[in-house]
Design a protein that fits this description.
By secondary structure, the protein is α/β, with parallel strands linked by helices. The chain contains seven helices and eight strands.
């Protein structure tokens, strides 16, 4: 009896967060973290508490505007070098959103290795904005090309990083943001002082910041003053913008945001 071929793995969209709107006009794709190298299947529960909170907040805030929020389930746990599996799966997910809902705009929101995937896949034709939370980025290597940024031209980009992150180097995300800013003024980066990789200490502030940014990018809602200032400021000011404690308290009432 011949050996059966192993079926090819496929990425998939997870169930929509919250109640899916009747008419969809925009989408957020949640990209969880991963590993540098791994051919194992991802855990069924990939998303961190932060990413889940972001998803719930956005689903509530954007329902009236027709926003749908989907987590992305990768084929593999690892980035896997030049295969860049997580970025490829993020691009597939943007294609799938277009197939399901038609010609709508997409915001990619990723954390850790998912942040790298969001940045790399940001050039997809449906994507108009990217959020990278404590993104995992490769160390500088003179023998390897820099992490690409040209694909981010024409997109609005937010990077958030804790200054005490011991897993992903915040200086690397600053350097990437600085290179991206040269070609695209719509790039900003916030630093969360004393917070670590999971951004646990200021999770509420980070969730409000992401919601404010994504709703502005997808639906043209007014941005908060700190985000406007960060986008407008020249480097390095707009790329080392401190995230203030209590950010978002005044936004929740204005934007209909509720605690997630």
């Amino acid at each position: 009896m011949g050996q059966q071929a192993t079926p090819a793995r496929s990425a998939r969209l997870g169930k929509a967060v919250g109640q899916e709107p009747t008419a969809v006009s925009g989408a957020v794709l949640l990209l969880p973290g991963g590993e540098e190298v791994s051919a194992r299947r991802p855990s069924p529960v990939q998303a961190t508490a932060l990413l889940r909170s972001v998803g719930r907040r956005l689903a509530r805030a954007g329902r009236a505007d027709g926003l749908v929020v989907h987590p992305v389930h990768y084929r593999y746990r690892g980035w896997n070098g030049s295969e860049a599996h997580l970025a490829a799966d993020a691009s597939w997910a943007a294609d799938e959103v277009q197939r399901r809902y038609g010609d709508i705009t997409v915001c990619l929101v990723g954390q850790d290795m998912g942040g790298r995937a969001a940045l790399r896949a940001g050039g997809h034709e449906t994507v108009n904005s990217v959020v990278a939370l404590a993104p995992w980025l490769p160390e500088d290597d003179v023998a390897a090309p820099d992490e690409p940024v040209k694909q981010l031209a024409g997109r609005r980009v937010l990077i958030v990083h804790g200054t005490n992150d011991e897993r992903t180097d915040p200086e690397l995300s600053f350097r990437l943001a600085a290179r991206a800013k040269k070609a695209n003024r719509e790039v900003c980066r916030f630093e969360v002082h004393t917070d670590g990789h999971g951004l646990h200490a200021y999770r509420e502030e980070v969730v409000c910041l992401v919601a404010d940014f994504a709703m502005g990018a997808l639906f043209g809602r007014p941005l908060s003053r700190p985000v406007e200032d960060a986008l407008a400021a020249p480097p390095p000011i707009g790329l080392r913008m401190p995230l203030a404690a209590g950010f978002g308290r005044s936004l929740r009432k204005r934007q209909g945001l509720v605690r997630g």
